[in-house]
Amino acid sequence: MENLNLSNIYFPLLIGFLFSMVFTANSIKAQTKKPYKVIDVTNEIADGKEKEVNLLFEGERRKIVQLTLRNGKNLEGHSAKEPIVIQCVAGEGELIIKNDEENNTIKLLPGTFVTIESNVIHDVIGKPSVSIVLIRFLE
User: Scanning 9, 33, 71, 124, which has the fewest C-beta atoms within 10 Å of its C-beta?
Assistant: First the structure.
């Protein structure tokens, strides 16, 4: 009978076992991470700072915040380098889209949903107070 080298048998088995453990652990981890997130949005304006920003979600390709402006507070002349979506969830306000030829004013009431392309200058004004959800689509 030949002398058997047990390391020639056990080493490949050990390597196979370790690989299976790594791939099984990654598979379990992938299955336990949810592919969605439920986000609570405040739909009333309570007392607080005149300008309040709450981060609701930040992911690889998007960022979602709730912005509340109180007492006529204004976010003057700003733009985002990515496309954005604004939805009014409480109060009343104005969104002013500015361009070379004219300004367009959009009344913000609960349920108003507006998409804005990248680099478009706009203002948001509380009339007297407004709360919006802003979604930025990151590049």
Answer: 33
CB atoms within 10 A of CB 76: 10
- CA–CA dist 64, 133 (Å, integer): 7
pLDDT in tens, 18-60: 666 666 655 454 455 788 889 999 999 999 999 999 999 999 8
CB neighbours of residue 57 within 10 Å: 11
Q: Do 25 and 74 belong together in one domain?
A: no
Task: Provide the whole-model pTM.
Answer: 0.73
Q: Which domain holds residue 15?
A: 1-33
Q: How far apart are CA 108 and CA 16, in angstroms?
A: 61
Q: Sign (positive/negative) of CA torsion 99, 104, 110, 114?
A: negative
